[in-house]
Specification:
This protein is an alpha/beta fold. 53% of the residues lie in helices and 18% in strands.
């Protein structure tokens, strides 16, 4: 980029002489033949690297012109070199410096000296211009940084407010869940008494009226069956509600012993179904035995319930240890115990593998298979209470496999 120099002299030959000396250095020249003309030029143009100005000029001298130039804020940084044929003495030289001069060149002009001084001041102008540009850039960066800090502070404040609201919502939901569990427990408990009366009085009605007709007997039988189903549902709801308030009292327990106790309870059903149950070696884990028993009871009961007609049920229970790195090689590897409960029953479509763990979700009509639709939801809640996970794999008519994943102590 060419640097602009303003040449001010009342004689054309002096202007021509300075231009001739400096033109080989590639400067761009603007010429004025008086101080007033120079001021008019500077009203429109102010991007000059240097002003070379004669001291002795009619009307406005170089000193007077310099004083007027430096009254304008945007022109204060343009250096002025005075060109003079006279040595005015120290007092006048200082006057020139006070007016804004940065140097003097005496006539007759030494071309090499003029070129050297102009080169120095032009270079200083360029450096100063770069510093000003850098200052503006830093100011802009600083403004952007301040805006970013304000935005970040606003965002952090918003996040804090959202976290506070989230904690309040969580606390409210936990309170509501506890209230709901208490309500379900109390409601289910209170419903059992009228159910017992329905069953008792229907039994009495049946025993005292031996001569009832076939239709009346059918009605009473339906009442009793409905009461049994209702009582089973209430008991399942009570069990489900108790899990929420159950303390995390984990003790190291042999899972083989817990499964053995469940199989003892189901002995009659196993014999009726002619079922074959194979139990592999299961580990000892820190669990809540009171919760693990209904977990295995529900899974084994389901395997027996949903067996194929005319095919003896085969149920296999086994385990394996799985190590899953936590992503940081410097830390320990977490171990998990996977327990598999496999059967050769009727199975189900894999697309329902998530839905079956929902409350009251049933894939079959109650007329086909008895049940309340709470069993697998209960299993899911028990496993999650142990910080684990339960999933299912199945194919229609090819059996099902339920997979319980529980963390192992390091």
């Amino acid at each position: 980029m060419q640097q602009k120099i303003l040449l001010v002299d009342d004689r054309e030959d002096n202007l021509f002489s300075m231009e001739t000396i400096l033109e080989k250095d590639g400067y761009l020249f603007v010429k004025a033949t008086s101080g007033r003309q120079a001021l008019k030029i500077l009203l429109k143009e102010y991007d000059f690297a240097l002003i070379l100005m004669d001291v002795k000029m009619p009307n406005l001298s170089g000193f007077e012109t310099a004083e007027l130039i430096y009254e304008r804020e945007r022109l204060k940084f343009i250096p002025i070199i005075f060109i003079t044929a006279n040595n005015y003495g120290e007092e006048n030289i200082f006057k020139g410096y006070r007016a804004g001069a940065v140097d003097y060149i005496y006539k007759p002009i030494n071309p090499d000296l003029l070129r050297a001084k102009v080169s120095v001041f032009v270079e200083l102008y360029k450096k100063n211009h770069q510093l000003l540009a850098q200052e503006q850039k830093l100011k802009a960066i600083n403004i952007n940084l301040q805006n970013e800090i304000k935005e970040r502070e606003a965002s952090e404040d918003k996040v804090r407010q959202l976290n506070i609201q989230l904690l309040k919502n969580i606390a409210r939901l936990e309170s509501m869940n506890k209230e709901l569990d208490r309500f379900a427990f109390m409601a289910s408990h209170d419903l059992q008494e009228p159910l017992r009366k329905i069953r008792t009085f229907s039994d009495r009605l049946l025993s005292k009226n031996k001569n009832l007709g076939e239709e009346e007997m059918l009605y009473i039988d339906r009442i009793q069956r409905a009461a049994v189903r209702m009582q089973t549902l209430i008991e399942d709801i009570l069990t489900f509600s108790k899990i929420s308030v159950e303390q995390d009292s984990f003790v190291n327990s042999d899972l083989n012993v817990l499964v053995g106790e469940v199989l003892a309870d189901l002995e009659t059903t196993v014999e009726e179904k002619h079922a074959k149950i194979e139990v592999g070696q299961l580990p000892s884990l820190p669990v809540n035995p009171g919760l693990m028993r209904p977990l295995f009871h529900n899974l084994i009961s389901n395997a027996l319930k949903y067996s194929k007609k005319d095919v003896d049920p085969v149920i296999r229970i086994r385990s394996e240890i799985d190590s899953t790195p936590n992503g940081n090689p410097a830390k320990e590897v977490h171990k998990y115990c996977k327990i598999f409960v496999e059967d050769n029953g009727i199975g189900f479509d894999q697309k329902y593998s998530e839905q079956i763990f929902g409350m009251f979700k049933r894939l079959h009509l109650s007329t086909e298979f008895e049940g309340t639709g709470i069993g697998l939801a209960l299993c899911k809640k028990i496993v999650e209470k142990h910080n684990g996970h339960i999933s299912a794999k199945s194919k229609v008519n090819e059996g099902s496999t339920f997979i319980i994943t529980l963390p192992m102590p390091n």
